[in-house]
């Protein structure tokens, strides 16, 4: 069974590498503000690595424990797998109908020690525990290792057998071991596999901004919002493409991870995390009562002393210079969400529930109608 699972993961990974690259939002003519990094991804921040394990199997009627399965796990390393030194971090909850573990320690110490995990609501525990197992295995002194991992979730139960608990420790290990620099897979991958955004297929999206000599990168797991709320580049896209909407009330959540190489301290990073709210607002979200909109930000600039008795010098930006960094967070958050939507493909899950992808041709037509289609693709 274990060999079959590993073989399946290899085949899924190989297929994703061979598949033709899907267009991103800018390729379709969606206009955005700001200058992106080379990859327009969170991995433009030097050292950041992202890994996914995607679980898709079965179809038809829901049989709890058997499927259909449409879920996974995503891992983000602030300094990469090989560098276990902590980073300064801060977090913010715009609406707390969700979960992000480890936040009490983020508030207390302002330090993130290890990777961030994102998965479905009922797999937070197994992902948290598996991250600790992975850390113990790779620690220099595993006998004294301790960890309070940051693991966040959004609910994929419309498409996925969420009560079947299909995310296992080996899936978490695969996402951690497979984390890499370079382009980041988007859409129905990793923790974003079964997610829905504005009643279109949602999932993982990423973007970045380069501003005043620093880079800001954002990764989202987008699973929120009603169709009629959706705005892209200021255009009421959701009202122009109402077909396929199926929810009477807002449901779902969004997790936003912000990385930067700007020298910021924990209280400044909390301010960064708050600004993700404005990028989300640009998309039309009202952060409804049923939504868990929780954001975390970290900086790779400073070396945080990791041993007792050690001290270290730190740098910080003047608060009056943070405006361009704030703008970068807002802009990259907005674009990351649109990239998640653009990367979506039609998906059918439990009991025949089908969620359609945002149609690229219709999106371009709507943007053109409102004079917002970028001429140069």
Question: Can you tell me about this structure?
Answer:
This protein has a single domain (29-365), classed as L-amino peptidase D-ALA esterase/amidase. Helix content is 26%, strand content 22%. The longest helix is centred in the last third of the chain and has 20 residues, at 323-342. It has 377 residues and is α+β, with helices and mostly antiparallel strands.
Describe the structure in brief:
Helix content is 26%, strand content 22%. The protein is an alpha+beta fold.
Task: Provide key terms for this protein.
L-amino peptidase D-ALA esterase/amidase, globular, single chain, disordered N terminus, 377 residues, 14 strands
Layout of strands and helices, then pairs:
Blueprint: H1 2-18, E1 49-57, E2 69-77, E3 87-96, H2 103-109, E4 111-112, E5 116-120, H3 124-138, E6 150-154, H4 169-177, E7 196-197, E8 200-201, E9 203-211, E10 214-223, H5 237-240, E11 253-260, H6 266-282, E12 292-299, H7 323-342, E13 347-348, E14 354-355, H8 360-369
Parallel strand pairs: 5-6, 11-12
Antiparallel strand pairs: 1-2, 2-5, 3-4, 3-12, 7-8, 9-10, 10-11, 13-14
Helix pairs in contact: 3-4, 6-7
